[in-house]
Structures are given as C-alpha cells and as structure tokens.
Amino acid sequence: MKRKKSSRRKALWLLNGILLALTVAGAIGIFVLLNDQQPQSNNQLSATQPPATQEPDDSSLTPVASLEPSATPTPITPQFTDAVWIGVGDIMSHTPQLPGAYDKATDSYNFNAVFAPIADIVAEGDWKMANLETPMAGKDYGYTGYPAFNAPVELAEALWHSGFNILSTANNHTLDKGVKGAIRTLDHVQEIGFATVGSARDMEEAEQSVIIEHNDIAMGFLSYTYGTNGIPIPEGKEFIVNLIDKEKILNDIKRLRRDGAEVVTIALHFGNEYQTEPSEEQKTLARELIAAGADIIAGSHPHVLQPYEMVSYTDDQGLERQGLIIYSMGNFISNQRGDSKDYGAIFRVDLRKHYDTGLIEFKEVTVTPTWVHRYKPDENFRYRVLPVEATLAAKDDALLKEEDYETLEADFAMLTKRLTSMLKQ
C-alpha cells in the first residue's frame, strides 16, 4: 500500500510540473507577442484620427515674417472670338399648306412640326435669317396663296420657335396686300421678336441701320428686291420696300460700316425663277457688291438651289478679303414640287474675329440640303423640312418609304454637284 501511494504521489508531482511548465511557457509567449505588436501599432495612423502632437515649447519657436498677399494675375486677353451666321431661302404659304395645320377647336394654326426636324441645326447659329416671301397682314385680310399671298402669323411663330431671329422682307410679294398689309406684317413679326430688314413703315425706319451683335462681332443687314410683281409703290411711300439700285446699295454699305458694322450681309431677291444657274446679271451685281465691302450675299427668288462661290477681293486698306455669294438658297418651305423646287438648304458660315488685326475671316462654310416632305395622313397634307444627309444616314423615319430614300439619295448627289460647281478646285 505504501509503495502504491508513493507511486501515485510521484505521478501527481510530475503532472503538476508539466502544467506549471505549460503555464509559464504560455505567459512568456503572450508577453513576447504583445511586445512584438506594440511598436507596429504605434507606427500606424488611423484613417479618421490624426496622431497626437506635443504642444510646442515657446522657447523653441522662431519668429516668421508675415507673407504679403499674392498679386492678382493679369487676365489673358482673348486672341479671337467666333460666331455663326445661318441663312435659308423662301418661306412660302401656298393654300394646301394651311388645312393640315389648322385646329378648329382653337380657331388657330400650328406649324411647329414643319420646322422641328431642323431646329437643332438652326440652334447652333447666332444670326439666323430667312426670306419671308409672304405678307402676314392678319386674318381679316383672308388667308390666300399664289399669286397674292397672306399667311397666318402662326407660320412666323413656328419659325421663331425653331430658332430663327431675322427676316428679310423685301421680295416680289411684299405688296401682295398693299402698303397697309406690308406694314401690318412688320407689326406682327416684330411683335414676335424678329429683327426685319428690307421693308419699313416710314422713311426714318428705312434709313435706320440694322446692326446686330453676337460674341463681340457686329453684323449689318440689308435687303432688296428686283420688283413687286407689277404692283406700283405709291409716290411718297418708296420706303415701304427696298428695290435693287446699285448706287443705293453701295451707299447703304458705307452707312452700315460707318455705323459700326464689321460684317455686312445683303439679301438679294433676284435672278430667274426655276433656273439652276445664276444669270450674268446676278453674278455681276453680286461680285461688285462684294468688292464694295459686302461679306455675304444671300440670294433668293429662283425657288431652286443655285451654286455658291467664294470671291477674293482687296479692300481699301490693301488687305485681301473673301466674300461669300449664295445665288439662290431655294425653297425652305412651300408646296412647290418637282424639278428640285421642293429642295432648299441651310447655309452656315463660321466667322472668326482676330483681335490683334481686327480682321474677320470665314473659318468654314457648311451647306445642309433640305427637303420638304409632303405627306397625307388624312384628307389634308402635312409638311416637314428634313435635312437630307442626316435623313439618309439614319433611314429610320417611319413616315418615309423606300422609294423616298432612293429619290433622296439620287437628288442629294445632284444637288451637291450643283451647289459646289462654282467653287474653285
């Protein structure tokens, strides 16, 4: 029995020794581990809390001279400024154009859909000009088409809504509703917000320079027509519409320049109807006006597109300058069909004024042919002005048929060739 107790006592001592050794080893391991991590944690900065800093000892501070505020930097003078002129041709109102735009419930017209497809293009311009080839004398005159027009004022409202802001009002239909009708047209379109050029209420207005500034570029406008379809201008009312008179135009160019115009645009209603090439008379007059100081000639009246050309000339200071002559911008909206009468174009001129020299250059001239799409969803026609090239590129217009695309493609090639035929290669 003693031996057995002694043996058990030895085993117990051995077990206690092992447990004590394990306890000491564990304590030592924990101590080493804690001491190994402490320096690392002291070197890491919290992402949200900055490390504590000691308050500086006043005796260790060195005085620092106060800094003067930095001088305001000198503003950089711009080297140039850019602006965009956009021009389109004839705005006409034939009788078939009216019923589809009429709302019986409100007894009014809405032509906004006509110009909606090209509004984005027009929006890129600053001066946006169209030839208003119809009086807008008012409902009491009766709405009439060819040969003596009178359109609803809502047609001008749609033009304004699509972005246009300047109307040329000198053309062979200016007096279709007489002098009073021409004056009321000015009343109506100016009330909408349009600047007008080419006709006037009195001599004072006729002699007033139309100069419109955009982006620090001042553009002056003039407008003249070859005639008024045989309707006589009453004596003493010569101011009512400007007729083409070269000497008068030359004097008007000088007046615009004297009054501050840096660029001069002249709308000329001239040429022969339905002729795809300009006449010699057109070319002679337009080139003389460019040489005399005009910069852009915006032609209308033929009702079809004619070529455009760039003309170089030397001004009175001996500097070589360029002028743009558009002989005919075609029909922008009308009911005329066939023989390219249903085509027009949006002409865009990117202008740049150089501040060092004061010269204004044509950076780029862009032409976007347009097509008047006429369709008949019910008993009345509807009209849309479509940009030809973009329409062909998309080919996703639900209102167009395959034969429409085929016609547009062939006509686009023909019109491009016609428009560029007078450009120097």
From TrEMBL:
SUPFAM superfamilies: Metallo-dependent phosphatases (SSF56300). Belongs to the CapA family. InterPro entries: Capsule_synth_CapA, CW_Biosynth-Accessory, Metallo-depent_PP-like. The keyword Nuclease does not apply. Pfam families: PGA_cap. This is Capsule biosynthesis protein. Residues 84-336 form the Capsule synthesis protein CapA domain. The chain crosses the membrane at residues 12-34. Residues 42-52, 59-78 have a biased composition (Polar residues). Keywords: Membrane, Transmembrane, Transmembrane helix. Residues 42-78 are annotated as: Disordered.
